[in-house]
Every structure is written in C-alpha cells, then in structure tokens.
Write a structure and sequence with these properties.
Blueprint (H helix, E strand, L loop, with lengths): L4 E4 L19 E4 L2 E3 L5 E3 L4 H10 L3 E7 L2 H10 L8 E5 L4 H14 L9 E5 L5 H7 L4 E4 L9 H5 L2
Helix pairs in contact: 3-4
Bound molecules: magnesium ion.
Pfam families: Acid_PPase (PF12689)
GO molecular function, one term: acid phosphatase activity
Protein name: Phosphatase
Amino acid sequence: MKVKVVIYDADKTLWDHYNISEFREPIKVINRDEIEDAEGRKLRVFPDVRSTLEELKSRNLIIAMATWNFPEKAERILEILDLRRYFDVVVARDFPYKFVMINEILSELRKRGIYAKPEDVIFVDDRRAHFGNVWLYVGRVKCVEMWRDISSHSEILKLIE
Ligand SMILES: [Mg+2]
C-alpha cells in the first residue's frame, strides 16, 4: 500500500484530554507536552507523537487532522503545543462525522493539486465507531484504532512501509 496521507483524530488520540473545546483561556504551558487551562484542566501529549509526526514529514507524507471540536479551539491548542506546523490541513467541526471531515480534507488537497485516493489514506482514531461510515462514504481508507490496532504512535510508521 502506498500511503500518502495520514489523518489524525485529536482528543484521546494525540493527547490524553477527551475534549479540548472545554479549554478556557488563559492556557499555560507546563512543559513541551503539557498545558493547563484557566480552570485547572490538564492535557498531556502522548509519547512518540512528536517524533512520529517529524518522521512522517521527513518521508514527505501529508498530515491532516479530523476532529470534533470548535475550529478556533483546535487551532489554538495545536499552536500552543507547537504541533500546528506538522499539519497540512486541519478540519475541526462541531459535529462528530469524521467521514465528512475526511472528504473535506481530500477535497482541500485536490484544490492544491494533490490527488489522494481513499486507499492512499490512513485514518487514526481512538473510536472505531467512526470507521463504518468512513468506509461507506469515503472508500477503502486504512482505518487504525488507536490503542487497539496499535499501542504506540511510532507503530504508525510501520503501517506506511
Ligand atoms: Mg478521539
């Protein structure tokens, strides 16, 4: 399989918090992988996330995000964690339909002249419930359930070889 695009979920996939839309300003940085919001909510980036994103970039893969969150919140959290620069496309929506977001990502890439077929895509999400509709409405995307199909982020690299 020739994978060109890796699409990530955010909450509980890239970090341990379940809903970044709850985060309130001011948000402070505790260390590179940890932040805390005005009301004491904490978020920690999972191990190997940064090194895996770095490696995917160095292999010239396209990296995108499909997350059920308010767009401005997703952008803010990615910026403050210094992760935004890894993502070519971020689609955050206030609804849970990942298949809609993935189609949006693919259409945005087409606008940029990048024609990725569904089978060129890996979608990593901690909720398997999304996968059925992704297969039905997007196509033969390689769906990977985080923490079930793989137990660490670096295992994503093995899937694209
Ligand atoms: Mg999630």
